[in-house]
Specification:
heterotrimer, A: 11 strands, globular, C: 98 residues, alpha+beta, binds magnesium ion, binds zinc ion, nucleotide-binding (chain C), Asp/Glu-ADT_sf_sub_c (chain C)
Chain lengths: 497, 502, 98
């Protein structure tokens, strides 16, 4: 059984297709693993045992009938609890949606089901995806499998922890300011934020509409690519979805190479606040890229310094509006309806009781930034910064094929350390935010352990919009070289649970 | 509440000059909602036309209805507006239980159409130009049923019940620039503008614009300024004035109320007001503690619209004849006065008369039946003329039967009654009810003889030259034939038998 | 530039329909002040002649045909309602406009 859970998604799919394993066996192995370790990790908010086994049986039946199976048929997956799942609870990590059972599937959910992927359950997250530690979940924090007293990153800490603790070989995350990449970095896994519009947002509970993007999480670059291809593509239900072919990510992941590529290093992604071990591993990665045949180019992107500020105006503004629908009238929590109170009072009492502090902070921040008299100085200026950052990227990509940086300035911090210091928490996304603002694509993959704490460090690769394949081409090459250097995947150095 | 003694309309106008602004919301007649594929069909069971998007469920997203955009552009063009080369939707943020997302997807500083005008014709034929500020797209809200109060109104209700079938139906909001210079005719201009706009919308085929069904709703903003003063006074905003007559009454009432407040040294506060159908008055709405702050920002879930110029020109080429131009043409063709044409317009009979003429009736009888018997019936039943269970073709057939002498006017009314009662088409009703005029000369002759015999004195008078007395004998014949005789023919026969020249 | 007060926090909370507790007002006032103080840097670019970016992709005119798609059933629509009556969502009294 332990064998099965260590397999990659590509290996599992191949074995199922070849009849060496059944999807039911694979699913049961992962359910058993969840049973064994998730009490400690708390990656999942909801396990859909019956649904998972039913899907696995359907895949096995299809195989027996001689029907062709998709490249991930029968592979288990952990789904971030931000995607709607018909008939299965969806909470977004919030009390306000406790008990909500959506009457519809998100497009991502629908595509996963159609591909025969087995959804094991829904993973923990910072409430409404607001946070970098998963401590903001209304249902308690998730532990980092490398050290259970530390955070697994956020907001998608449940998904990254599920991967790192072998509870699932695949997971789905969403990335508004780094919520796929930063958890991947601090758990030693792989996470990709596709180009904005590459993966449908329909049925993905909105935090910040112009920044949110769903994407694949896995333990290997190839697995991420296989999942990327399953969930990406045009969706007529999402007006911001790109109507163009999905970049050839799987092909790129199978032919990793950086020979002849120009790789940019941005001056602004360094300096104060960066942990020494992170910088060390990053510098080694750059040397590795050079040794693999890449040319390194130094870049200056001055507007990136304003990225964090712009982000903390745009995301809260959009969220203040997106979360207005949680008003106790049509679904979700209702508090204080004693027959005498007005709808307005019941809404206010419910939101007070149902939202956590970080959500309230951001709603108020956004309300402030949009209110008359402040709009131009705050929201308006933040949108100008967005233009400047996009231009900096455009200029950079005239000189280089991809950009690399540390994914996050530090390794996983202890649970509780930044819990009531929002500004300190926000710094975790310093390197990931510019990509969300510009809408282009980025990946995080492991590049070693920081010497001072023995915790994983992530390397971020950034590509232009709709050139997501470059992430996989470079990522696969880097991954192969590191695994060769280490003698095994980094995750094998994690303590067993 | 202090009741202000109104100033007479004449006195108000002697001292002040009214300035109006009219905001009209029109529900488009698209098959589906503005941002989702739910049906817009009226009369469906509650909450049967909702989906994740129009219920505002978490994760749902909007997609723009192409016909919604097309309709907005058509309206803009018909109002002589410029059409934006690039514009966006915006979110208007405020909480209200009838609005599922607690923001309305609307347009803010980038409306799809702007800077236009609509020429409206007053009853005496004078043309008044109303300048249009903008026409923008937005969505309707759900419908609330207030329970537990005495009156079914929101005030005093213990709770409310919401049906979101209407939530998300496309709306076009058309806003005028300040209407100045109408003077005492301001209320008439307001009414004529709304009437003209309704005709225009119907002619474009983008909505049925039925005010009584709430498909078209008007807000009347009004202020007064002393004669000779440039600066506008403080305005009041009278919401949801939902008939043509009410628009005129509301404007008139507000002129009188403002004048009363101002001339007694008071000040007008900017507020929303409610119009009361019963007595034509307005009352103050709830005064909000703080000014609304809608926190508009560009809707991130929708991408901008950039109507291609060639497409806009194609649409322009398909615009129908303007209702006012068409009406003037018809007025001349039909040979009626401005005043009569206005009555026809107000009755919503223009298209019905046109269709009846197209079906073979002459203009005079088409107009006569629709504006006479049928208008009376629609008034009695409180429904629109178009809702009556009779078609223009059937009315044309009635007119044809009369013209051929098969029935007379009195019988025609009975035929119409039969058609309305669902007894079939005019010929069937004539047949079933036996309504043909007695044209059998023999039978008619016998009836005439009988009438002469039993009214000898009158017959003598007529023989003696008092021809006018013939009416009494005609009446007697009509009575014995139970109305089914051609009165003109009866008169002819009587005079003939009595040897008198007509 | 900022200096956000307890009263302003209370005003924001009202606009956002959050019934904050007294101690939360102070707590959030301090934190919001810090955050706004930090992010106010963006106004450095306020005077620059740069178009704002509201959408990360240069898409326009995304529309759908005016064709009816299946709705939810009323049962599905109401399945999560905190309260219902007469096949409608039952909500507390709405403060009247009159
Ligand atoms: Mg409006
Ligand atoms: Zn709908």
């Amino acid at each position: 059984m332990t064998d099965i859970i260590k397999l990659t998604a590509a290996e599992i799919a191949a074995k199922i297709a070849a009849g060496e394993l059944t999807a039911v066996e694979v699913t049961e192995a992962h359910l058993a693993r969840i049973e064994a370790v998730d009490e400690k990790v708390h990656a999942f908010l909801h396990i859909d045992r019956e649904g998972a086994l039913a899907q696995a049986r359907a895949v096995d039946a299809k195989r027996e009938a001689g029907e062709e199976l998709g490249p991930l048929a029968g592979v288990p997956l952990a789904l971030k609890d931000i995607f709607t799942t018909e008939g299965v609870p969806t909470t977004v990590g919030s009390k306000i949606l406790e008990g909500w059972i959506p009457p519809y599937d998100a497009t991502v959910t629908r595509k996963l089901k159609a591909a025969g992927v087995v959804i094991l359950g829904k993973t923990n997250m910072d409430e409404f995806a607001m946070g970098s530690s998963t401590e903001n979940s209304a249902y308690g924090p998730t532990g980092n499998p490398w050290d259970l007293t530390r955070v697994p990153g956020g907001s998608g800490g449940g998904s990254s922890a599920a991967l790192a603790s072998y509870q699932a070989p695949l997971a789905i995350g969403t990335d508004t300011g780094g919520s796929i990449r930063q958890p991947a970095a601090v758990t030693g896994t792989v996470g990709v934020k596709p180009t904005y519009g590459g993966v449908s947002r329909y049925g993905m509970v909105a935090f910040s509409s112009s920044l949110d993007q769903g994407g694949p999480c896995a333990r290997t670059v190839l697995d991420a690519a296989l999942l990327h291809e399953v969930i990406a593509g045009h969706d007529p239900l999402d007006s911001t979805s790109i109507d163009a072919p999905v970049p050839p990510v799987v092909e790129a992941a199978r032919s990793g190479s950086v020979a002849g590529m120009r790789v940019g290093v941005v001056k602004q992604f360094s300096g104060e606040g960066y942990q020494a071990g992170v910088v060390q591993r990053f510098n080694e990665s750059v040397e590795l890229l050079e040794s693999l045949g890449a040319t390194i180019v130094e870049l200056d992107c001055p507007s990136f310094d304003l990225g964090l500020s712009a982000y903390y105006l745009i995301a809260p503004s959009e969220c203040s509006s997106n979360l207005a629908r949680f008003d106790a009238m049509r679904y979700g929590l209702r508090v204080g309806d004693d027959g005498t109170r007005s709808a307005e009072d019941v809404t206010a009492l419910t939101r007070e009781a149902g939202f956590g502090d970080e959500v309230k902070r951001r709603i108020m921040l956004g309300t402030y930034a949009l209110s008359s008299g402040y709009y131009d100085a705050y929201y308006g200026s933040a949108q100008k910064v967005r233009t400047l950052i996009t231009r900096d990227f455009e200029k950079a990509f005239e000189q280089v094929d991809v950009i690399v940086s540390p994914t996050t300035p530090t390794t996983a911090f202890p649970i509780g350390e930044r819990a009531d210091d929002p500004m300190a928490m926000y710094l975790a996304d310093l390197c990931t935010i510019p990509t969300n603002l510009a809408g282009n694509a980025a990946m995080s993959l492991p590049c070693g352990l920081a010497p001072e704490d023995g915790l994983p460090v992530g390397l971020q690769i950034i590509a232009p919009a709709m050139k997501d394949d470059r992430l996989y081409k470079v990522g696969a090459a880097v991954e192969a070289a590191f695994v060769e250097r280490w003698g095994h995947p980094l995750l094998e150095e994690a303590p067993s649970l | 509440m202090t009741v202000t003694e109104l100033v007479s309309y004449e006195d108000a106008l002697a001292a002040y000059d009214p300035v109006m602004g009219l905001e009209v919301h029109v529900e488009l007649g698209t098959k589906t909602k503005m941002f989702c594929g739910c049906s817009t069909e009226l009369g469906a069971p509650p909450n049967s036309q909702t989906c994740p998007t129009c219920l505002g469920l978490p994760g749902s997203l909007p997609v723009v209805n192409a016909i919604g955009i097309e309709s907005a552009v058509k309206i803009g063009l018909a109002l002589n507006c410029e059409i934006a080369e690039w514009c966006r939707f915006a979110r208007k943020n405020y909480f209200y239980p009838d609005m599922p997302k607690n923001f309305q997807t609307s347009q803010y500083d980038e409306p799809i159409a702007f800077n236009g005008y609509l020429d409206v014709q007053l009853e005496d034929g004078e043309v008044f130009r109303v300048e249009i500020e903008r026409a923008h797209m937005e969505e309707d809200t759900g419908k609330s049923l207030h329970v537990g109060g005495a009156t079914g109104r929101i005030h005093g209700a213990s709770h409310s019940l919401l049906d979101y079938n209407r939530a998300g139906i496309p709306l076009i909001e058309i806003v005028t620039k300040p209407i100045e210079g109408a003077g005492e005719r301001a209320p008439e201009v307001a009414k004529a503008y709304v009437a003209e706009l309704r005709e225009l919308i119907k002619a474009l085929g983008v909505s049925e614009a039925r005010m009584e069904q709430g498909q078209m709703r008007c807000d009347v903003n009004l202020s007064l300024r002393p004669h000779g003063v440039e600066k506008f006074g403080t305005r009041s905003e009278t919401k949801n004035v939902n008939s043509l007559r009410s628009v005129e009454r509301a404007a008139r009432f507000e002129v009188q109320r403002h004048a009363a407040v101002l001339s007694s040294g008071g000040t007008i506060i900017q507020e929303t007001r409610h119009f009361h159908e019963e007595d034509g008055s307005t009352t103050s709405g709830r005064v909000k503690e703080e000014a609304e702050d809608y926190r508009y920002f560009p809707e991130p879930d929708l991408v901008p619209m950039a109507p291609p110029r060639e497409w806009v020109e194609e649409l322009r080429a398909t615009l129908p004849e303007l209702p006012r131009v068409r009406r003037n043409r018809l007025r001349e063709e039909w040979g009626v006065s401005e005043h009569d044409m206005q009555s026809i317009l107000n009755a919503g009979a223009v298209d019905l008369i046109v269709a009846t003429i197209e079906a073979g009736a002459d203009a005079a009888s088409a107009r006569k039946w629709w504006m006479g018997e049928l208008a009376r019936r629609s008034n009695e039943e409180g429904v629109e003329l178009t809702s009556l269970a009779i078609t223009p073709a059937q009315v044309a057939r009635v007119a044809e039967l009369v013209a051929a002498g098969d029935i007379n006017d009195k019988l025609a009314r009975q035929v119409i009654e039969g058609v309305l009662a669902g007894e079939g088409d005019p010929d069937t009703v004539v047949e079933k009810r036996g309504l043909k005029v007695v044209s059998d000369e023999g039978a008619l002759g016998a009836a005439v003889d009988e009438a002469i015999a039993s009214n000898a004195a009158i017959a003598d008078k007529i023989r003696g030259g008092k021809v006018a007395a013939v009416g009494a004998l005609v009446g007697a014949v009509m009575k014995t034939t139970r109305g089914q005789a051609d009165a003109a023919r009866v008169k002819e026969l009587i005079l003939q038998k009595l040897g008198v020249e007509a | 530039m900022p200096g956000i007060t307890r009263e302003e926090v209370a005003h924001l909370a009202r606009l956002a329909r959050l019934e904050l507790q007294a101690e939360e007002l102070d707590h959030f006032a301090g934190q919001l002040d810090d955050i706004i103080g930090a992010v106010a840097r963006v106004s450095e670019v306020a005077d620059q002649d740069v178009p704002p970016t509201s959408h990360p992709l240069p898409l326009t005119n995304v529309m759908r045909l005016d064709e009816v798609r299946p709705s939810l059933t009323p049962e599905q629509a109401l399945s999560c309602a905190p309260a219902q009556e007469q096949q409608r969502f039952k909500v507390p009294q709405i403060l009247g406009e009159d």
